[in-house]
Amino acid sequence: MKDEHINPWKTLSSEQVYSNPWISVRHEQVINPGGGQGIYGVVSFKNKAIGIIPIDSEGNTYLIGQYRYTVNEYSWEIPMGGGPVEIDILESAKRELKEETGYTAQRWTNIARLHTSNSVTDEEGFVFLAEDLIAGETEFEETEDLKIKKVSFAEAVRMVMDNEITDCISVAGILKADKILRDRKRSTL
Amino acid sequence: MKDEHINPWKTLSSEQVYSNPWISVRHEQVINPGGGQGIYGVVSFKNKAIGIIPIDSEGNTYLIGQYRYTVNEYSWEIPMGGGPVEIDILESAKRELKEETGYTAQRWTNIARLHTSNSVTDEEGFVFLAEDLIAGETEFEETEDLKIKKVSFAEAVRMVMDNEITDCISVAGILKADKILRDRKRSTL
Questions:
Q1: A151 three-class SS
Q2: Are B120 and A41 inside 8 Å of each other by CB?
Q3: What is the pLDDT, as a whole number, of residue B3?
Q4: DSSP secondary structure string, B88-139?
Q5: Which pLDDT tens digit goes with each residue over B18-47?
Q6: B90 & B160 share domain
């Protein structure tokens, strides 16, 4: 068996066909692992996706709602933002939580590293659990664009199970957090 | 509060800047929900992502391993494929499971509808739980490109929790399946 860590693909040529402040797209000629020649269109992201699941002392979390232009649907999601690659992901998470909810958290746990769509994009996402919250002033203003709602964490899990939350990082993050919180509870029984 | 179902974005112009057999990329001039003018680069997928979690009578599942060109990493994932939009997603799921494992399943449950990366792409994914499996001939041949391995479903969950599985559809699907299987067990105790 060949070493899983060696990239079996070869890139013969690479041409940037599009770029904006958030993504660039490359069209590449490649040799695939089977030895065949082909093409690959790679969408490269300029930021990491960083999601935060805050849990307050009463077991509530916060969801952000917005109309997603790409999928033409309204979407409730965990607080999330783009973290510039040169900034530490935990720093980006802290900034994002503060901006969207006003909270600072005294306990942070990195619970997920994710690839959102690895057949086409290189987007990498992370999810943090934020606990022991301290309320503060929020810079967040509800507009027609962005809504915020407080729900029990159990209700967030229900929304995931009923496909009312479809954003994949939110789904993966909420269910990972659910398992971590259940396992923690069980170990302290 | 405005109706969540009305799209508050306006598209002023749209230009296709790239296309290959799997994706197209559009550069658009938009008015965002706040009324500001801006640009949006939308990556549109020509297939739906369809993942399958087969569970055999002994509680095992199957994972597919491959080196992902985009993220430059080896990745273990649930069996998955691209379903053409004109084909019923369950039919695509059945074909994919048969191709990759040889199995046909007598019990299919659609457990997830997901948007993989909705800030940039319109990619939609679905995950099916496949049970009551009947073994058959597989068309799958292990190559340097694709590996298959049988693991207990509990081991798949452990791999998710330890970030050994990072593909977001696989993570979301395995944890949703885990919760469904646990809830089912509890309801029959």
A1: strand
A2: no
A3: 63
A4: -HHHHHHHHHHHHH--EEEEEEEEEEEES-TTTB--EEEEEEEEEEE-----
A5: 999 999 999 999 999 989 999 999 999 999
A6: yes
Q: Which of A8, A117, A157 sits opposite B144 (nearest CB)?
A: A8
- In angstroms, what separates the C-alpha of A49 from chain B's closest C-alpha? 9
pLDDT digits (tens, 9 = 90+) for A36-51: 999 999 999 999 999 9
Closest residue in B to A17 (Cα–Cα): B18
Q: Please give the single-letter amino acid code of residue B8.
A: P
Contacts A166 to B, Cβ<8 Å: 113-115
> Whose CA is closest to A168, among A135, A134, A131, A121?
A121
Residue range(s) defining the domain that contains residue B116: 47-187
- The owner of tokens 């934020």 is A130
Task: Please list every residue in chain B whose beta carbon sits closer than 8 Å to the beta carbon of residue A4.
Answer: 65, 67, 74
Residue B34, chain A, CB below 8 Å: the answer is yes
pLDDT, tens digit (0-9, with 9 covering 90-100), for B111-163: 999 999 999 999 999 999 999 999 988 777 666 688 999 999 999 999 999 99
A33 and A51, same domain (yes or no): no
Q: Which residue of B has its CA nearest to A116?
A: B168
Q: Are residues A21 and A55 in the same domain?
A: no
Q: How far is A30 from chain B (nearest CA, A)?
A: 10
**Residue-wise pLDDT tens digits, A120-176:** 999 999 999 999 999 988 777 666 688 999 999 999 999 999 999 999 999 999 999
| CA A169/CA B32 separation, integer angstroms | 23
CB contact under 8 A, A118 and B171: no
Total number of domains in chain B: 2
Q: Is residue B1 part of a domain?
A: no
